[in-house]
Amino acid sequence: MDTCFNRSTNTNLVKKTTVVSEEMTSQIRLRLLPSARCLFDEPVQVKVAGLRPWQVVTIRARSTDEKGVVFSSSATYRADGSGEVNLERDPSLIGSYIGVEPMGLLWSMRADTLHKLFSKNKVLNPYVVKFSVHELEGEGRMLAEATNERFLIGDGVSRAPVKEGSFHGVLFTPPGEGPFPAVLDVCTFMSEKRACLLANKGFVVLAMSLYNDKPDNIKEMHLDYFKEAVDFLQQQPKVGNKGVGIISRSKTGHIALSLAAFVPGVEAVVWINGCSANVAFPLYYKKRKILSPLLSDLSKVIPTESGVVIARYCVDNPLAEENQATLVPIEKAKGHFLFVASEDDLNWDSKAFMDQMVERLKRHGKENFESVCYPRAGHLLEPPYGPHCGSSFHWLARQLAMWGGEPRSHAAAEVHLWKKIQEFLRSHLSCEASRPTAKL
User: Fold this and answer.
1) Among 39, 101, 152, 317, fewest CB within 10 Å belongs to which?
2) Catalytic option among 345, 371, 409, 428
3) Distance of CA 194 to the CA centre of its chain
4) Residue 7: what pLDDT?
5) Given 134, 254, 336, 379, the catalytic residue
6) Which residues contact 268 (CB under 8 A, 6 or more apart)?
7) Mean pLDDT of 287-292
8) Does 379 participate in catalysis according to the annotation?
């Protein structure tokens, strides 16, 4: 099934018992509903009350990431006749975004300096956002403030570093007896955020990285390393026997495809903005080379006026005759695929690679796939409600690079995709006895 997602104007909020967090200046109240403490991927409703009828105010959000970089946003609103502002209902007049955007203050946050990626990988510490309301006139005196603590790890979820055989990673396990579906989250560089958030939803998730060494020191890749992780997951006492899911993005995409094609027990693969071929290094399995490397030519980067490059077309054409040995034989896979491509991905030509794989599977009579495209989203699709990053330092290209994405559309794509990923994995890895998901 092919799907092309376009942004909806509505945002659904989970209905819970209201808990109000507020700090008051006079009678003005800034409220975060249903609670000022929530999981990272949950929306909050921002409301201001006690203003003068039709008063115009600016609402700001501010956070400091794990590297000490400050991110902030602001939007100006006009109160209604009762002196209230409701971000679910009211449009921003000017600021970091315009229009009705209930979570706009979060996704529109930008660093004080250019080309910064928001760093949040320490899952045991909450992501803290300071909201505040300010007068529009004069020096913008603060009228009220509230703090939003956004947790990555829910109650009862366990985190355990793993070093088993030749691989190492971090295992996240939900509360309860299970059995739970199992997912291997393969990251280019180690990140625990997505794995931890998936564990909150009732998955046993092992996070591991593609690079445990500097890329310059790597000459070849071995699929056996990742198969060990698959085997380890299947042996976990709380895991059901349905098989393992793989989630990947960018450079790890071809590893996920190769696991599905060559390793038994891989039932579901989420491929996000990657390539259809094995990139950069020869891939070995059981001491035999199974895929040649598809090479890149960094002289093909497109410079921009700001000095940031676009690397979208640097990878060689995998369909060229001389590159046939680099293509992953995904038609051999017994599991299911969810292909996800951002049309404004400026790092890979992901939509073209996705179309190649869809055509290949159809040519082989396969129907074991879904595909979703996001017309104005960029490369860095993440779990929702983090600051959008359009450009930052590219650790492999060793220069500032454009990732792409119109912020509003990219943020909406992340909300849609996060739900889609969970539905897809649960559908193909279902465990009837799995328990409810973790909450705060």
Assistant:
1) 317
2) 345
3) 7
4) 46
5) 379
6) 243, 245, 246, 335, 336, 337, 338, 424, 425, 427, 428, 429
7) 98
8) yes
- Whether the pLDDT of residue 122 is over 70: the answer is yes
In tens, the pLDDT along 318-329 reads: 999 999 999 999
Q: How many CA atoms lie within 13 A of 355 on its CB side?
A: 9
Q: Is 405 left (phi over 0), alpha (psi -120 to 50) or beta?
A: left
> Phi first, then psi: what are they for 187, rounded to 5°?
-105, 150
Amino acid 158 reads: S
Residue 18 in this model has a pLDDT that exceeds 80: no
Among 250, 342, 371, 409, the active-site one is 250
The answer to whether 65 and 125 have CB atoms below 8 angstroms apart is no
**Cα–Cα distances in angstroms (integers) from residue 328 to residues 275, 290, 317, in the given order:** 10, 9, 14
Q: pLDDT tens across 57-81, in order?
A: 999 999 999 999 999 999 999 999 9
In the chain the domains, ranked by start, together with CATH numbers, are 2-151 (2.60.40.2240), 158-428 (3.40.50.1820)
Q: Which two tokens stand for residue 166?
A: 């030749």
Is 336 considered catalytic here?
A: no
Q: Average the pLDDT over 195-205 and give the result.
A: 97
